[in-house]
Amino acid sequence: MNYDEKEKLHRTSFDDGKEKYILFAVSCGNEEKAEASIKELEELLKTAGGESCAYMIQNIEKPDRTTYIGKGKALELKEMVEFLEADGVVCDDELTPSQHRNLADILETKVVDRTMLILDIFAKRATTGEGKLQVEMAQLKYRASRLTGKGTALSRLGGGIGTRGPGETKLETDRRAIQRRLDKLTADVKALKHVRETTRKKRLESAAPIVAIVGYTNAGKSTLLNRLTSADILAEDKLFATLDPTTRVCRLPNGREIMFTDTVGFINKLPHQLIDAFRSTLEEAKFADMILHVIDATSEDVELHKEVVYDTLKNLGVEDKPVVTAFNKIDLLADSRDLPLTDENADAAIDISAATGKGINELFAVIENEFREKKVYLEQVIMYNDQDTLKRIKKYGQIIEEEYTEEGVAIKAYVPPNMIK
After folding, report:
1. What is the dihedral of CA 354, 355, 356, 359, to 10 degrees?
2. Distance, CA of 51 to CA of 11 (rounded, Å)
3. Which end is more exposed in the chain, N or C (fewer Cβ atoms within 10 Å of the end residue's Cβ)?
4. pLDDT of residue 373
5. How deeply is 298 buried, as exposed, middle or buried, from its count of CB atoms within 10 A (0-12, 13-18, 19+)?
6. Quick one: what percent of the chain has pLDDT higher than 70?
7. What are phi and psi of 400, to 5 degrees?
8. 10-24, 61-75, 376-390, 391-405: which has the minimum mean pLDDT?
């Protein structure tokens, strides 16, 4: 078989010390989009610890129902696996149980799909108890839909009146075991969700505004959180470097405190199992006062990343909130003539570099300006024995005028709405 450009069988360099995989996808009329998706799949595989040695793109109207790429291409893929001595193949979409089974029978090698790969990465990256539980739930739901029977082998026979018969199959036993585990995990996650909601409620009762940092995976959210708050959050040039949300307090140049919450990165074709499992985590954005949308300005797929983020936020019910977009990594742009970048869905946009600190002061100013527009004007005399109220106004509001009188401290200020009684 001739593996050339015309056949869309592309060989890439690889590290002999890692497992080698061949990536494959279908292009339903948009080859450029398929190429970009394959490139992202290659990064996912790298994050999971594997290496791509080649990839194949099949141009068809829609994925084949039985083998995804068609039986002919599946046989070509098998030859390719043997020729390159690959350890397995990775599909750029989620395969149906029958597609997965049929491909495994034809290829006689390990078959992994995009969902399985992302779940594996999440399992490696989750560090908190809640994160680990949520990942396990997603994995079990994925496995449950792919359980298949092995003939009519029985795990045990019935005994006693009314129980005589063929007994339980191994398949039924596995399903019941998975369901029991899912029930236990659901209860555990529900308990942890209550703890998270209590913590969230305390934050909401505080007058400090909450800004949720969202964005496509590897856009630089954790690096930005570190820059804004002097936090020490893991920040790597890898997809899904951090999974668990982190909240840190930041003091703006004018002295006002704001809470920034980092969230898990979004990605195209995010498995629905993870949307369900991580809904409580992703909902941090739903309860925020503002969305800080971080975009990798160096990416060739900026428009796709925008679309994925806004669609995900919409699915979570995160709408009608002020959005500030930060185009990150501008220090890596080869041509500054393309700046400034724009986001038609945002209330404001700014170019920054979380790594070097460029544009951070301007970002603070934009955020403060957006919050100022949401503040309520307050004119009140604070009694001298009510210093707590005065401290809260100074901490979370913006005092325009302050005068000490016989009755107390007369102030004119702009404060968050929840401070008005």
Report:
1. -10
2. 12
3. C
4. 67
5. middle
6. 79
7. -90, -40
8. 10-24
Closest C-alpha to 372, from 273, 290, 285: 290
Nearest alpha-carbon partner for 259 in 293, 323, 209: 209
Higher local confidence (pLDDT), 160 or 299: 299
Could you tell me how many residues make up the chain? 421
Q: How far apart are the two ends of the chain, measured CA to CA in Å? A: 77
Structure tokens belonging to residue 46:
């790298």
Confidence of residue 162 (pLDDT cuts 50, 70, 90): very low
pLDDT for 16: 56
- Supply the pTM of this predicted model: 0.74
- Between CA 323 and CA 347, with CA 292 as vertex, the angle to 5 degrees is 20
In contact, 154 and 167? CB cutoff 8 Å: yes
Burial class, 40, CB count within 10 angstroms (exposed 0-12 / middle 13-18 / buried 19+): buried
Question: Distance between CA atoms of 170 and 149, rounded to whole angstroms?
Answer: 7
The pLDDT confidence band at residue 169, using thresholds 50, 70 and 90, is: low
